[in-house]
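Support request, please re-run this one:
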Amino acid sequence: MATPVTTQPATPPSEGTVRAEVDGVVARVVLTAARRRNPLSVATMRAVTAGLREVSGREGVRVIVIAAEGPAFSAGHDLSEMVDRTLDEEREVFTVCTEMMRAVHDVPQPVIAAVQGMAVAAGCQLVATCDIAIAADHAVFGTPGVKIGLFCSTPMVAVSRAIGRKRAMRMLLTGETIDAATAVEWGLITDAVPADELDGAVRDMAEKVADASGVTLRIGKEAFYRQIDLSEDDAYAEMSEVMATNAMTCDAQEGMSAFLAKRSPVWQHR
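Re-run finished. Output below.
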């Protein structure tokens, strides 16, 4: 199991909305606008994207956690930025949001969402986009835009891919929230745990993931998102090549040799 070390700040807070830090092999990007339920303003989304990219480049980081302070994970977009604006200004909001979601998939490390409370609209989208999501059992999830005349079309992209068409349409058309147990059943999140066990559960999951070779995690994450929407034939063709080239890496050769020798592998992360 990975050994934690003293937490070191990776980036300074951005306008009091985001904090990034590194603790051993695990980095955290934390939403800190707790009093406002962590709205995803343009500045906040840019700070999350920058934080992900910065900690991703830190030596030794093999897992990134996205977390939040306060009672809500995120209430979604900052609506104060979306009233009485030009079309280009509205477009900027969703362009920046898309860049943040893509960054979650683009960083080579697996990204875990630690959801301590409500995650709705773009907040739900962020949870759905993460590779793994663990939530407190009282957390709720929803895409309520229909109730304010703004259909959750960009959240729909991630949510529908996580839970399927009919369940996604139910959430999108009614705007109703689902509880954490339902979110697990539907595949929106990975696990739900008592609130006082959330930090430990997230840390345990991060350390389990981080026990693997860093290069193997990078190859596997990139390959997963490359193949997921391909036809079966195309996916097998591409992934056969991925596995062949993966098998040539130092860590794959070490891992297979260690298995055959009945010993623990020693990763070089290359």
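DSSP finds ten helices and eleven strands in the chain. Confidence is low (pLDDT under 50) at residues 1-7, 10-14.
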